[in-house]
């Protein structure tokens, strides 16, 4: 059962309801949305593909790690895949905490980690007819020393 | 699995992201000299079959199921090696 | 006409729709919610009062200042006043930007500034029958040197 | 405004937050020695009328309409001075 990755529209309201907590004074939501322009090029179509078995596991682990690192009460992450349109939400992070500092830091950590560790790939088709997988972050391979480099096919 | 020796010395490979594009499809089979084979053996076999893929392999992580594996991990007949080039979710 | 301060429930969806932008890849929402416990005391009733003429002006100025300071495209702030219940949203900040770093920083700046500069007062009634205006931040008085001290009536 | 001299030497005051509680209501009138009066004069008059309010006044900002004003700002008959103790919105 896929819990964190979906090919349906991401809806905020169910996540807000699901995470309600009377201990919490702070809610921080991050949403990633599809932009019309990327690096100055007009985007006409966008697709996210996923290696689901590992993506599900990583998203669940990132939620747990975020809860462990910060003084927060809830952390939920959802990522959409498949064909998206301009303005659509591609990813949502919802954090609730007693206080706002931890909520902001945790949401920032969670989305940064999603972008670095979850096997999902963004493919864009441009108005000039070209297309490309967007430059990405190599998944960390614990035994290797090189990290942080990027590669892309044009 | 067929009974002939050639397919017994093949490992299934699943390619994602730019590697799916470069390899012309998500799934393929790569021949290796013998089994079990290491991840490095399978990557070398893929680079031989698809030379354009070679430059992406250094920054490609590999997985079996939901586990990231190292270059010296071993694959048996029936295993599938999943190739995960740099990710761009979010 | 009150635009930023309301005695009605704060709803996120209209603000999200209203701020949609195809230039933007990042959405950050901060929501302040009423907690059941404050400083270890159980809260039964909560009321926010406002000096509306200045609060409206300050909230509008904070939006403008946030847009000026950060590389963001939209900033909207709404504050609820009157009687609230546990879990209700008291304040909402919605920021949209091309990229997430600026969106997070801007939302954090906006809510911090709201808490320091907007003439709104939170009054809590506790389960033990006591009640108090919550400790607050003195509004800056440009000609005076003392700032940052807090005062409260028990 | 009434025509007698006493009410001509009064300034309307609006109290918010803890000052509303301490003063027993949001609106009151404070007598001053003459008009125009400074903000400081009005605050001193309020502290005379409501001694418990004095300790809050140092950290209270004052406004006329939607403008924060300093202690030396002048009030005329008909002006209302708004008292804004430390704020706790959000």
What overall form of chain A do the CA principal axes indicate? elongated
SS content category of chain B: alpha+beta
Q: What is the gyration radius of chain A calculated from CA atoms?
A: 16 Å
User: Helix and strand succession of chain A?
Assistant: EHEEEHEEEHEE
The portion of residues forming beta strands of chain A comes to 25-35%
Give the total of beta strands of chain B. Answer: 7
Largest interface: A-B, 40 and 28 residues
Instruction: Supply the number of helical segments of chain B.
Output: 4
Give a quick account of the main beta sheet of chain A: strands, pairing sense, barrel closure: 5 strands, antiparallel
Unreliable sequence segments of chain A: 142-154
Structure description:
The complex is a heterotetramer, with two copies of chain A (154 residues) and two copies of chain B (90 residues). Chain A has 154 residues and is of the alpha+beta class. Chain A has three helices and nine strands; from the N terminus they run E-H-E-E-E-H-E-E-E-H-E-E. The longest helix of chain A is centred in the middle third of the chain and has 18 residues. Chain B has a five-stranded mixed sheet with strand order 2-1-7-4-5. Chain B has a two-stranded antiparallel ribbon with strand order 3-6. The radius of gyration of chain B is 12 Å and the shape is globular. Chains in contact: A-B, A-C, C-D. Strand 2 of chain A pairs antiparallel with strand 2 of chain C, so a sheet runs across the interface.
């Amino acid at each position: 059962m896929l819990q964190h990755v979906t090919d349906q529209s991401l809806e905020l309201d169910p996540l807000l309801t699901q995470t309600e907590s009377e201990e919490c004074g702070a809610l921080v939501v991050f949403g990633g949305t599809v932009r019309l322009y990327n690096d100055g090029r007009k985007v006409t179509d966008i697709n996210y593909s996923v290696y689901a078995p590992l993506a599900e596991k990583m998203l669940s682990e990132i939620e747990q790690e975020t809860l462990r690192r910060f003084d927060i009460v809830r952390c939920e992450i959802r990522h959409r895949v498949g064909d998206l349109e301009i303005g659509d939400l591609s990813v949502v992070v919802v954090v609730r905490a007693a206080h706002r500092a931890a909520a902001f830091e945790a949401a920032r950590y969670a989305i940064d980690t999603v972008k670095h560790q979850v096997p999902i790939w963004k493919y864009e088709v441009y108005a000039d007819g070209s297309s490309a997988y967007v430059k990405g972050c190599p998944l960390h391979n614990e035994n290797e020393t090189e990290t942080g480099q990027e590669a892309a096919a044009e | 699995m067929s009974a002939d020796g050639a397919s017994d010395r093949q490992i299934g490979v699943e390619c994602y992201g730019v590697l799916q594009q470069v390899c012309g499809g998500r799934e393929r089979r790569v021949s290796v000299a013998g089994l079990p084979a290491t991840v490095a053996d399978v990557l070398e076999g893929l680079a031989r079959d698809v030379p354009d893929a070679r430059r992406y392999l250094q920054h490609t992580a590999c997985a079996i199921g939901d586990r990231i594996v190292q270059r010296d991990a071993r694959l048996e007949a029936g295993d599938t090696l999943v190739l995960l080039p740099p990710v761009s979710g979010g």
